[in-house]
From TrEMBL:
Keyword Amino-acid biosynthesis in annotation: no
Segments passing through the bilayer: none
Keywords in alphabetical order: ANK repeat, Repeat
Organism: Paramuricea clavata (Red gorgonian)
Pfam families in alphabetical order: Ank_2
SUPFAM superfamilies attached to this UniProt entry: Ankyrin repeat
InterPro entries tied to this protein: Ankyrin_rpt (IPR002110), Ankyrin_rpt-contain_sf (IPR036770)
Entry superkingdom: Eukaryota
Name recorded for this polypeptide: Ankyrin repeat-containing At5g02620-like
Length: 245
């Protein structure tokens, strides 16, 4: 085949580079470690991207369920020059996907590799920071890992995304109250919201809680705001007029 290509005057490799990239990503997805090494040794770009999703091999590695295989493949890709900070079409890095999927083993490993640019403060195309993505994972350990890293790096933990939600609001909306507890009780986020509301222990108050959070200009909830919102909520729960018979 290569001889035929040369005869035809086509100066390209076989298979085409786009196909070779997909083969590499598929090797990661299928956890074929030996094939992965062979492809990388053959010169396939370790930072190639899926043309549809923009996923790199490192990003695709975050979807591997088997923790041992996942760590082994991540280490191999990094050893061949894999870039953690490279983004896909959603603007997410491999580290961002590790946060969203709750891959704590990978997160800890990347934290130890201090020479890497992991994109701790990266923001995806929806305006989500990595703490918000960690909250969306529903994994309180992931939230603690990222919140602690944010604190050390002095990154704002109350930044809001394009839907005007910050990390604690996202966790509360999704019902991940253990993640909310980590942020509040470990002192990462300041709030005076009653615990029975904040931790989902009182039914029918989540909508009020969301409204209070959205109207707090300094992201710190005060008791007067709570009382005002609850008064409005109770007032609006009664009919404004009674129809005449």
């Amino acid at each position: 085949m290569r001889a035929e290509l040369k005869t035809a005057g086509l100066h390209q490799t076989w298979p085409p580079k786009s196909n070779r990239s997909l083969i590499l990503i598929e090797a990661v997805h299928s956890e074929r470690h030996r094939q992965l090494r062979l492809l990388l040794d053959a010169g396939v770009n370790v930072n190639c991207q899926d043309p549809e999703t923009g996923h790199t091999p490192l990003i695709r590695a975050m979807f591997i369920e088997n923790a041992r295989q996942r760590r082994a493949i991540v280490k191999t890709l990094l050893g061949y020059g894999g870039r953690v900070e490279k983004t896909d079409r959603e603007g997410k890095t491999a580290f961002a996907w590790a946060c969203l999927l709750g891959r704590n083993d990978v997160i800890r490993y990347l934290f130890r590799e201090i020479h890497l640019d992991i994109g701790l403060g990266s923001i995806d195309s929806s305006g989500n920071d990595n703490l918000t993505l960690a909250c969306a994972s529903g994994n309180p350990t992931t939230v603690r890992l990222i919140a602690d890293a944010f604190r050390k790096a002095r990154i704002d933990m109350n930044r809001r995304n394009l839907n005007d939600e910050n990390a604690i609001m996202t966790a509360h909306r999704l019902g991940f109250y253990d993640c909310v507890k980590v942020l509040v009780e470990d002192g990462y986020v300041a709030t005076t919201m009653p615990k029975e509301v904040l931790y989902g222990e009182e039914r029918g108050t989540s909508s009020v809680h969301a409204r209070v959070l959205q109207q707090a200009p300094n992201r710190c909830i005060t008791l007067p705001q709570i009382f005002s919102m609850y008064s409005d909520h109770l007032t609006n729960s009664f009919p404004r007029s009674i129809s005449k018979r």
